[in-house]
Amino acid sequence: MSRRKDNKGRVLRTGESQRKDLIYQYRYTDALGNRKCIYASDLKTLREKEDELQRSLEDGLDYAGGEITVYELLQRYLSLKCGVRYNTKVGYGFVMNIVQKEPFGARKIRDIKVSDAQRWMIKLQKEGKGYSTLTSIRGVVKPAFQMAYNEEVVRRNPFDFKLTDVVVNDSQKRISLTEKQQKVWMNFIREDKSYTKYYDEFVVLLGTGMRVSEFCGLTLQDLDFQNRRIRVDHQLVRERGGKYYVEKTKTECGCRFIPMTEEVFQSLQNLLANRKRLKNEVIIDGYSGFLLLDKNDHPKVALHIENEMRWAMKKYRKLYPDAPLPHITPHVFRHTFCTNMANAGMDIKALQYVMGHSDASITLNVYTHASYDHAAEQMAKLVDFPGSSDRQERKMSG
Predict the structure, then answer these.
(1) Residue of 269, 199, 239, 290 whose CA lies nearest to 87
(2) Among the four residues 9, 84, 166, 393, which has the most C-beta atoms within 10 Å?
């Protein structure tokens, strides 16, 4: 049987042909049984397209049959996540590194049962992985398997279970500084010769509840001193490689105005007065005139302020070992601000707006920390129980 040849006498493979206009084509059947063609002006290019097509078809067939591994499933799922934030990409990479090293990641997805997924979570926690890490892993693996389930590749999602039914939530609760702790820390910063230069930064963070990346993203145009408010509609981020970029706030609800208290107003004025005058302002994604600058005249980022607090905390603990404070970070300031406002009686919807939360339940359940003293004070106002009036009178006379 003679083989089909092109106009140069070269033998063509099965499915290949050359049309009268000398264009090469390859006919094939896709996974749904439909006949299709690919074209090229020369045989070499056509065969490169054939090889790529074959790899794609094999991958599709393996996926459809549940033959790919857990790690390959995650690769497939994440390849569809376009336009995600830098920090989200970093989180995906963190999860993929863990899964790649795990024997579980090499197993075929069709073989994974719910009990297998649960046992893997238990194994990871026994090996030292924290609850937050397990949450991050499950946050990628569960939707990846859900994709496979929706496409009828697996019979059910093996990660569709409540995590706390399987592993212990050993994550540390978010802390909020007490009024006394706030005074001790801020007085230390204000009086210390080395760290007093950061006092105004800390006042603004503690007095506004801004995310530290939002604070670093503030430009001079965002400060409305006449109406005493701060516009927050973006945040500044720096990648590990050193590249700066501006991105939207964490949620759409993150775009907001924050009122300036008198203390915040004065600290912002101080920061502005002490800011170095630059001949050429740095421009990042169209933004310029950043309020906070580092020693190299570049905008400060979250790591700068986190380090300021860490170094100051180290010195405080050395000087005052008998008066310990919780570990203080910019996010602790955010929790503290939210708690202070809630304890002061701020309406929850108004507080949700100021915090930039997408849901009031986050404001209620995650960030506010009630205290006994505040609870007792509120009960004294609402309920007439023995001794309540006496305490109120003593408080007023004192």
Answers:
(1) 239
(2) 166
Residues 256, 304, 334, 335: which is the catalytic one? 334
Q: Please say if the pLDDT value at position 119 is more than 60.
A: yes
Q: Is there a contact between 276 and 246 (Cβ–Cβ < 8 Å)?
A: no
Marked catalytic residue, from 211, 238, 256, 304:
211
Secondary structure (DSSP) of 331-343: HHHHHHHHHHHHH
- 199, 304, 367, 369: which one is catalytic? 367
Q: What is the pLDDT of residues 10-37, one digit of tens each?
A: 999 988 999 999 999 999 876 556 688 9
- Of 231, 331, 353, 374, which one is the catalytic site residue? 331
What angle is formed at CA 134 by the lines to CA 77 and CA 121, rounded to 5 degrees? 95
Catalytic residue among 250, 275, 298, 374: 250
Inter-residue contact 192 to 343 (CB < 8 Å)? no
Residue 357 is a catalytic residue: yes
173: which residues sit within 8 A by CB, 6+ positions away? Answer: none
Mean pLDDT of the chain: 87
Contact assessment for residue 263 and residue 203, using Cβ atoms and an 8 Å cutoff: yes
Active site residue 335: no
Q: What are phi and psi of 287, to 5 degrees?
A: -100, 140
**CA separation for the pair 250, 271 (Å, rounded):** 25
Q: If residue 40 lies in a helix (H) or strand (E), which one and from where to where? A: strand 35-40
Catalytic residue status for 123:
no
Structure-token match 């001790």, residue found:
184
Out of 68-72, 80-84, 315-319, 394-398, which region has the weakest mean confidence (pLDDT)?
394-398
Confirm if 153 and 77 have CB atoms less than 8 A apart: no
Return phi, psi of residue 351, to 5°.
Answer: -65, -40
Token pair of 252 as six digits: 């759409």
3-state secondary structure at position 231? strand
Please say if 331 is a catalytic residue: yes
Select the more confidently predicted residue: 202 or 243. Answer: 202
Q: Which two tokens stand for residue 255?
A: 């775009």
For residue range 132-187, list pLDDT tens digits in order: 899 999 999 999 999 999 988 899 999 999 999 999 987 766 788 999 999 999 99
Residue 377 confidence (pLDDT): 65
